[in-house]
Design brief:
The chain is built from eleven helices and 17 strands. By secondary structure, it is an alpha/beta fold. The structure holds pyridoxal-5'-phosphate.
Length: 421
């Protein structure tokens, strides 16, 4: 592995940069938190302890699909709690089977394993890739090929697959068996693969995000993904897409891969799937359906409560035609962001993204930090989050309406005016 970037502070987790370095009493010092306690939410709005209202363009980091305190979700989960909350996977679970059926009908996959988070879903995918490498390809030390600037989570294998050295610092030795190429770069991908396979098959899988999220809202390039898909098919390498942030309607399709016109062999989901409740999923096509009893498991994975949350989320997305809303609001947001870029050309490079996964890219060497913008936004009653080193990320709930999207643009605009004097 040869991933290098500039020496880096490990702070700035999820873009919460620049606030207090000390953790609240009793909590480990794992997050740089903003000086804000959110106590209530409704739709796209949240309130702090003093009753101040904010427009939420963070949505629990691309997670609260239906916004906050959604009536249908509240009702469904209250009913579920009074019926049954958790049973082991030793038994059949009705809600899990209904959810799995829906997921396979709405995707290219034909079976699902449930877990509790994005990192865990990717961890499962990596285990699956290794087993596939051993069993189907006879590779002794299977490699998973990943992209630079990617993000796949914080468990040891997921973080080792993450193409950003700042997340590795202090946790060496990392899990072995990951190699990296430049995202969206056919030549880099081809060279890496040739180098690894010059003496025969070594690569079991390619793991990549259809649009890089934490790495700075970088949409995948269709030509690149077409090329990777073709090579993977030719060489019987699994193409695994990390749809943890991009899935469940966020990009204006159920899945990010749909806007790239390809199908993965395997993909992972979490975040928006539970609309704020912990659930993750590993989804596979038949060629990758190789786990057997005993290979992998999760105590909480696919419990009735989590599955009910996900079922309610997807039913609501369908009932309210939220995918169409994502497309319309995404276009509206993009238009507003482009106008903001035009207004501050010495500070902003471009806006980029798909659907309601948008980013505003700051120029380098400007007297402005992402942290100062996120903080300033609070004064303008707006919750913002960064992505990468220089991108303001906008991932509001999928229910955001036209008027609220205008509010978002206006508040972002006044935030930038506030820091750019
Ligand atoms: C693409 C991607 N994969 C994986 C993860 C990790 O998900 P989790 O925090 O649920 O473990 C994230 C979280 O930001 C993500 O954006």
């Amino acid at each position: 592995m040869e991933l290098v970037d500039a020496p880096h502070s490990k702070c700035g987790t999820f873009g919460f940069v620049g606030s207090s370095p000390t953790a609240p009493t009793g909590l480990m010092n794992t997050y740089k938190r903003l000086p804000l306690t959110i106590v209530r939410g409704q739709g796209v709005w949240v309130w702090d302890e003093k009753g101040k209202r904010y427009l939420d363009s963070v949505a629990g980091i691309a997670t609260c699909t239906l916004g906050h305190s959604n009536k249908k979700l509240r009702k469904a989960l209250t009913n579920q709690l009074s019926q049954i909350q958790h049973v082991s996977n030793l038994y059949r679970i009705k809600e899990q089977e209904i959810l799995a059926n829906w997921l396979v009908q709405q995707s290219c996959a034909n079976s699902v394993f449930f877990c509790n988070s994005g990192a865990e879903a990717n961890e499962s995918a990596i285990k699956l890739a290794r087993k596939y490498g051993h069993k189907k390809k006879g590779i002794q030390n299977p490699i998973v090929l990943c992209a630079k600037d990617s993000f796949h989570g914080r468990t040891l294998a997921a973080v080792s697959a993450t193409g950003q050295p700042k997340y590795h610092l202090g946790f060496e030795p990392l899990v072995q068996g990951f190699e990296f190429f430049k995202y969206n770069d056919i030549q880099s991908f081809q060279e890496k693969l040739e180098q690894l396979e010059k003496n025969g098959p070594q690569v079991a899988a390619v793991l990549v995000e259809p649009i890089q999220g934490e790495g700075g809202i970088k949409p995948g390039n269709k030509e690149f993904f077409k090329f990777v898909r073709e090579i993977c098919t030719q060489k019987e390498i699994l193409l695994i897409l990390d749809e943890v942030q991009s899935g469940i309607g966020r990009t204006g399709n159920w899945w990010g891969y749909q806007s790239l016109n390809i199908e993965p062999d395997v993909f992972t989901s979490a975040k928006g799937l539970g609309g704020g409740h912990a659930i993750g999923a590993l989804l596979v096509k038949e060629n990758a359906n190789i786990f057997e009893p005993g290979d992998h498991a999760s105590t909480f994975g696919g419990n009735p409560f989590a599955c009910k949350a996900a079922l309610t989320v997807i039913k609501e997305i369908e009932r309210r035609n939220l995918i169409k809303n994502v497309i319309d609001r995404g276009n509206q947001l993009q238009h507003g962001l482009n106008q903001i870029v035009d207004e501050f050309p010495s500070y902003l490079n471009e806006s980029r993204g798909i659907g309601l996964m948008q980013g505003l890219v700051l120029k380098e060497n400007i007297p402005l930090t992402l942290a100062s913008i996120v903080k300033e936004a609070l004064k303008h009653n707006l919750l913002l989050i960064g992505a990468g080193e220089n991108v303001i990320r906008l991932v509001p709930p999928l229910i955001i309406n036209k008027r609220q999207t205008n509010h978002l643009i206006e508040r972002l605009h006044s935030t930038l005016r506030g820091v750019i004097q």
